[in-house]
Amino acid sequence: MKIEIFNKLKELKYLKNKIYSQNMDSGDMIFLMHQSKTGNFKVLRNLEWIRHIESIYYNYYDLLINEQNIDLDFSLCGNIPYSIYDIYNDIKKIKVKKSLLIVEFLYDAKGKDSDKEWIVLYNQTDDDINLLDYRIQIAGSKFKTIYELNKEILKTHEYIIIKGSLKMYNGGQRADGLRILDDKNNIIDTVLYGENNFYNLNGDNNNKMLAKDVHEGYSLKRIFENNNYIDSDNSSIDFIENKNPNLKKYGDYIIKM
User: Fold this and answer.
1) Which residues pair with 148 in a beta bridge?
2) Tens of pLDDT along 41-86?
3) In a domain, 235, yes or no
4) Cα–Cα distances in angstroms (integers) from residue 142 to residues 27, 63, 70, 235, in the given order
5) Fewer beta carbons within 10 angstroms: which end of the chain, N or C?
6) pLDDT digit string (tens) for 199-244?
7) Same domain for 35 and 127?
């Protein structure tokens, strides 16, 4: 297992060096090759994403080097999977999800969080969505509703911003969550974030992996490439840290709480 992960790290280093040698910037796209049991498969990725995945590999490699128990329940290990194949399998599941998606959120504003937190939703379907009775939930030890939407109509491929005193949890050592439910109580999208999934929170399709806990004033944003937002149901893959949040790019459809 150590050799396999080490080889993956070498592969990622090669890809990064190739980008640098061709004077590409972090926004340029490349094909990241992975080997599965059935042969090669390709995932279109940029340098920012490679750095993100590489950090997960390094964390896991450190666990092995330190000869810690590699059979730990991954729900207690934050971004470190109990098996490297969990990462491979989730990468293979990356898809363009025709759904209402959480695409960015700021849960720990600089200074006091009051009136400074926000969530951006995006309609990645080809139809308008009536958000009547849709709910926003947050989780510490369990999920609870913090806001119920009214008669807002979100047009196809447009954004809506929910802003104010949302009272989202600030991540940290124990993971937290953010979720959308529709008017029939179906789970539409979930993001888990933090360091350790202490309360064993479930993400979409029972995936328990966590996006990283970001610094105060930073946001978590979903990866956008090839004109679509990706979704693997694995928060550690789908979301990356954004050091410079900018709500203006999402338009002016804003709901204030």
Assistant:
1) 135
2) 333 345 555 566 666 655 555 544 454 444 433 333 344 333 444 5
3) yes
4) 37, 29, 27, 17
5) N
6) 999 999 898 888 889 999 999 999 887 788 888 888 988 898 899 9
7) no
Question: 28, 16, 217, 231: which is closest to 106 by C-alpha?
Answer: 217
| pLDDT of 186 above 60 | yes
Which of 46-55, 106-115, 247-256 is least confident? 46-55
Structural domain harbouring 65: 2-70
Q: Are residues 46 and 145 in the same domain?
A: no
**Residue 151 CB neighbour total at 10 angstroms:** 8
Same domain, 122 and 200: yes
The last residue of a domain, from among 70, 86, 111: 70
Distance, in Å, from the CA atom of 214 to the CA atom of 220, rounded to the nearest integer, reads 7
Q: What is the dihedral of CA 88, 59, 229, 245, to 10 degrees?
A: 180
Query: What's the gap between Cα 213 and its chain centre?
Result: 11
The reported pTM is 0.69
> Does residue 108 lie within any of the structural domains?
yes
Q: What are phi and psi of 205, to 5 degrees?
A: 55, 35
| Residue 90 domain-assigned (yes or no) | no
